[in-house]
Structure formats: structure tokens, C-alpha cells
Design goal:
With 550 residues, the protein is α/β, with parallel strands linked by helices. Helix content is 35%, strand content 18%. It is built from 21 helices and 21 strands. Strands 1, 2, 5, 6, 7, 8, 11, 12, 19, 20 and 21 form an 11-stranded mixed sheet that branches. A 4-stranded antiparallel sheet has the order 14-15-17-16. Helix 12 runs parallel beside helix 14 and helix 13 runs antiparallel to helix 14. The longest helix has 26 residues, at 315-340. Bound molecules: zinc ion (ZN). Zinc ion binds next to helix 13.
């Protein structure tokens, strides 16, 4: 008893004399940098390989690993969905980001994936700041890092696109910052911060977007060396100015004068700007230099804008990737300097890929075609008018899905199951439609297993249309006039769903190339395993053991 009292009495001293840890501290990287290149196809690694320098994309191949067959396993292949999937390790069926713009099926309310009317813009007065991860229903690997270290780890996320900054940042981040096109400033919302940090105010004051848009966008090398692309002037591209030719050089000052800050998104300078901001965040937040494992999420969006405008076969796209390669090399050199070579881990992937231009493919005899949701929707309404005497039983077609109008169906005492069968029958006959699937009966659909899996993984009943349209492999949604300029994405096919996945740095086995198929959902659990933290709460992916050091 005396001993016990003595022990209790001396408790505080005893406790204080216990060393903080019994042995060596758990080794972890100082910083994880997640990079998402919007619309980057896996084959761009090799299409432009000869023209990349040693320090950018190729550095992953020499010092790290490229997972050569990384596939998206959900529909639709869009930006918000991809970013949510990369960071949660799960698909829309669980994380709920069913599309960039989805419909609340019960009410018909249209929702933008990161819209949040309950938060205030920070650093801006515009609606561009009313954004948050509220609609993201699962935790992210960045959330889990925060929780796993009792919030000692910092998570910062930057991008031009709001959704590409917010969804990677997750719910518990220290900051997510995105571009406000109306002011040329990077902003946030009250979800994350009460005011912009000093380093970001300083960055905004420099007005880098304006500075980066001085002079001309010229090809980095002599135009005739762009042999990975078509000749510069083709009918497959959308010019910056109506009636002019879609060619380089482009007068950026004129663009800025006529179109304002928004145009930086559509130039390689937009990627430069994003990576400059990433550096400012590392310096301002002391990321990777504080004795905790920090996380910086960077998403380069300009590749997507350039891709949509010019397509994968354009000189402009090739030049954008060559310039991005240089920007990445400079960024990695900065990380070596500030955090230390081998002290940080980087992964690089894409939110989705993109198809070759339809007219370009047509000109080379490939089987392609357009699918206009507006026109198909009109066909359905005409058929509904003839059969039911009313057109309001559907709300429309979006994300290759038919959205039903449940209020009208109920009010008209319509048999919903019969209606669905009719809609599916009408659509099945429509040009370039391969399959039409009742989302609630995918088990009955005679479709390839891989397509079925993607449909199921993409279906979140409260936010997805009940009927899924699968178009033929070379086909894409177009506007009513059948605009075949540039490119698009959103389907299950490899041109949209085969993405790059590269790792290098701390804890990564430099195996070069991994050939077995892995999935977008495997990224988050791989990073969680590397960091020895819990995987995100909706995770369905599996860690990729081959890329991790023992
Ligand atoms: Zn896009």
C-alpha cells in the first residue's frame, strides 16, 4: 500500500521521466504531393516521351514507377468525379459525387458538385467562393492524414478549378484555394478559412496571371518538329477568336484584353500559375518543414481546357504538355531544395482522359459518331407525347443518363416500370446508342462485365438518372449542331478511362514500370498504406504493394 501511495505521489515526476517514445520514431515522408493533370491520357507519357526533359515526367520513370494500366472504374469520367475518386479511393456509388453537375432525383434540383450556399466567399465577393466539399459523402486520404496525426499534419490544396481544389482537400483541410476568374485572384470559402493567409494575399498582390499573359504563346520548339501532332491549322480545333485560324503563336495580351483573367485557364500559363501557387503554399505554410507529414494537393486544369478546345492531336496540346513538363521539373527541383530529395513522396495521375477528335477519326475511316443529348431528349419527349399525351415525365438527359420526373409520374398515375421499359426501347433504336440500362436492374443487362461494373460504381440513386445510356466506342455527346471541335470525355471506354499513375520519392520502390491493371480507387489506399494511416471511410480500392518499399 505504501508503495502504491509512493507511486501515486510520485506519479507526475515518474510520468515526466518517461521518454516520449519507447524507440525510434515511425518513419514517414515529410511531405506528400498529389498532382492531378486534368484530362491527361496515359499515352501522353510516351507520345511526347522523346521531347520531355529528365526532370519532369521522365523523372518518375527513372526514380519511381509508372503503373501502365491504370483504369477508371466508374461512370461518368468527369473532373469532379475523378478528383473525388482519387482522394476517397471509392466511386460515385459511395462518395456521392455522381457528376460535375447532377440532379437531386426526388426534386429535380440541379446541383454543381461543390456548390454550397451556406458558406461565405473568402477573398472574394463573388459566387465563385460559395463552394465546399459538403456534397462529398466519404472521407479523403487527406482527411485521414489530418485525423491520424491529430491534425498536426497540414493539408493544403490548390487548383484553378474549384472542384479540383476542394475535393482533394477533403473536409478537414487547412486550406483549399482556387481561381476566381472575375478578379484574377485565388480565393477560398468559410468552410476552410476565416481569411486568406498572408502568403496568399502576397501572391494575389503580385498579379501573376496578368504577368504570365504578356507576349505571345509560341511553340517551345520549331513548329515543324511537332510531329506527334497534326499540322497546326486543322478544322478539328476551335480558334481563340471566331473567324480566325486555330494556330500558334497566339497574342496573349490581346486575349487578356478581350477575355480577361478567365483566359489564363486556357493557356499553358495556367499550369505555370498553379505550380507557382503550389510553391508559394509550400513556402508560406512551411509544408514538409515542420516535423509532421504534410500534404499538398495540386491540380493542373489548363490541360483540360486546351484539350477541349484543340483535341489530343493538336500542336497546342503537345506544346502544353512540353511546357508542363518543364514546369514540373522546376517544381520538383524546388521540392528537392526546400524539403529535400528523397524526403517527400509524389504521385501524379489524371481525373479522366479524353478521346481523339471525332472528325479527325472520321477522316481516317474510324467508326465514330455524335450523340446529342438535346436531340435524343426531344425524341423521347415526342414519343412520350404520342404515347401519354404529355412530355414532362422526364426531366431530360444529362451525363448520359435519363432523369425521370417522379412528381409528374406520380401525379399522372403512370406505371414507372413500364415507362422505363418504353424509354429504354425508344433509346435503344437511337443512332450510336449501344446499350440502354435500367440502373436498378444492372444484373439483368446483357452487357460486358467491365461496363456493368462501371455503371454500378457510378450509380448513386439520389443523384443519378435511373436510365444509363452507353454509346458506341467511338461516339461522344455533342451539342445539337453536332460540334466536333476539340475533344470530350465521359464514357467508359479506354480513351476516357486509361489514365497515368506515377509515384516517386520517399517510400516508393523504383521499379520503373508496373504492368498489371490497377484502378483509380487504388491510389488513396496506397498512400494510406505508405503513411500508415487509416484508409478513407468509403474506400473500395486496394493498395498497390509493388510500388511500396519494404
Ligand atoms: Zn473536361
Amino acid at each position: 500500500m505504501l508503495l502504491l501511495l509512493l507511486l501515486l505521489g510520485a506519479g507526475e515526476v515518474l510520468y515526466a521521466s518517461i521518454p516520449q517514445s519507447a524507440g525510434k520514431a515511425l518513419p514517414r515522408p515529410k511531405l506528400v504531393v498529389g498532382i492531378v493533370i486534368d484530362q491527361m491520357r496515359w499515352d501522353y507519357l510516351y507520345r511526347y516521351y522523346d521531347r520531355y526533359g529528365e526532370g519532369g515526367f521522365r523523372r518518375f520513370l527513372s526514380e519511381g514507377v509508372s503503373c501502365e494500366n491504370t483504369m477508371i472504374t466508374h461512370l461518368p469520367a468527369y473532373t469532379g468525379v475523378g478528383h473525388a475518386t482519387i482522394y476517397t479511393g471509392t466511386t460515385p456509388a459511395v462518395h456521392g459525387i455522381a457528376a460535375n453537375d447532377f440532379t437531386i432525383q426526388k426534386t429535380g434540383e440541379a446541383v454543381y458538385c461543390v456548390d454550397d450556399g451556406t458558406v461565405e466567399p473568402i477573398g472574394s465577393t463573388s459566387a465563385a467562393g460559395r463552394m465546399s466539399p459538403r456534397n462529398l459523402l466519404a472521407s479523403t486520404v487527406t482527411d485521414e492524414l489530418r485525423i491520424g496525426t491529430q491534425f498536426r499534419s497540414k493539408v493544403i490544396s490548390v487548383s484553378l478549378k474549384d472542384r479540383a481544389a476542394i475535393l482533394p482537400a477533403g473536409h478537414a483541410a487547412n486550406g483549399a484555394y482556387w481561381f476566381d476568374s472575375s478578379t484574377g485572384r485565388f480565393i477560398s470559402s468559410s468552410w476552410y478559412v476565416e481569411k486568406l493567409p498572408g502568403w496568399l494575399e502576397d501572391f494575389n498582390k503580385q498579379d501573376r496571371p496578368r504577368a504570365l499573359m504578356q507576349g505571345k504563346w509560341e511553340t517551345l520548339y520549331a513548329p515543324e518538329t511537332y510531329t506527334a501532332s497534326t499540322p497546326d491549322d486543322t478544322p478539328y480545333e476551335t480558334p481563340f477568336f471566331r473567324g480566325e485560324r486555330p494556330v500558334l503563336p497566339v497574342d496573349m495580351e490581346r486575349l487578356f484584353k478581350e477575355k480577361g483573367y478567365d483566359i489564363v485557364k486556357s493557356l499553358p500559363a495556367g499550369n505555370t500559375l498553379t505550380l507557382e501557387l503550389a510553391r508559394a503554399a509550400i513556402a508560406g505554410e512551411q509544408l514538409g518543414q515542420r516535423g509532421a507529414t504534410d500534404f499538398l494537393a495540386v491540380s493542373c486544369s489548363s490541360t483540360d481546357y486546351v484539350g477541349h478546345q484543340f483535341g489530343p492531336d493538336a500542336v497546342e496540346t503537345e506544346d502544353t504538355y512540353l511546357r508542363l513538363d518543364r514546369d514540373l521539373a522546376a517544381f520538383f527541383a524546388y521540392l528537392d531544395q526546400t524539403v529535400g530529395k528523397g524526403q517527400y513522396t509524389v504521385f501524379l495521375t489524371a481525373d479522366h482522359a479524353g478521346t481523339n477528335n471525332l472528325s479527325f477519326q472520321q477522316d481516317h475511316k474510324l467508326p465514330v459518331g455524335g450523340f446529342s443529348p438535346a436531340r435524343a431528349g426531344k425524341m423521347l419527349r415526342d414519343s412520350l407525347q404520342a404515347r401519354y399525351g404529355r412530355t414532362d415525365l422526364i426531366r431530360g438527359i444529362s451525363n448520359y443518363q435519363v432523369v425521370l420526373n417522379y412528381d409528374a409520374i406520380r401525379a399522372g398515375k403512370i406505371n414507372k416500370e413500364r415507362l422505363k421499359r418504353q424509354l429504354i426501347g425508344w433509346l435503344a433504336d437511337y443512332p450510336h446508342v449501344a446499350y440502354v440500362v435500367d440502373q436498378t436492374r444492372t444484373a439483368d443487362a446483357s452487357i460486358p462485365e467491365v461496363v456493368r461494373e462501371k455503371i454500378r460504381n457510378g450509380y448513386y440513386p439520389k443523384r443519378s438518372g435511373e436510365i444509363q445510356i452507353i454509346v458506341e466506342p467511338g461516339c461522344f455527346d455533342t451539342n445539337e449542331e453536332g460540334n466536333y471541335k476539340g475533344t470530350s470525355h465521359g464514357t467508359w471506354n479506354p480513351q476516357d478511362s486509361h489514365i497515368p499513375l506515377l509515384f516517386m520519392g520517399w517510400g516508393i520502390e523504383p521499379v520503373g514500370r508496373l504492368f498489371r491493371e490497377v484502378h483509380m480507387t487504388d491510389i488513396a489506399p496506397t498512400i494510406a498504406t505508405l503513411l500508415r494511416i487509416q484508409m478513407p471511410n468509403g474506400c473500395i480500392g486496394q493498395a498497390i504493394p509493388e510500388v511500396l518499399k519494404q
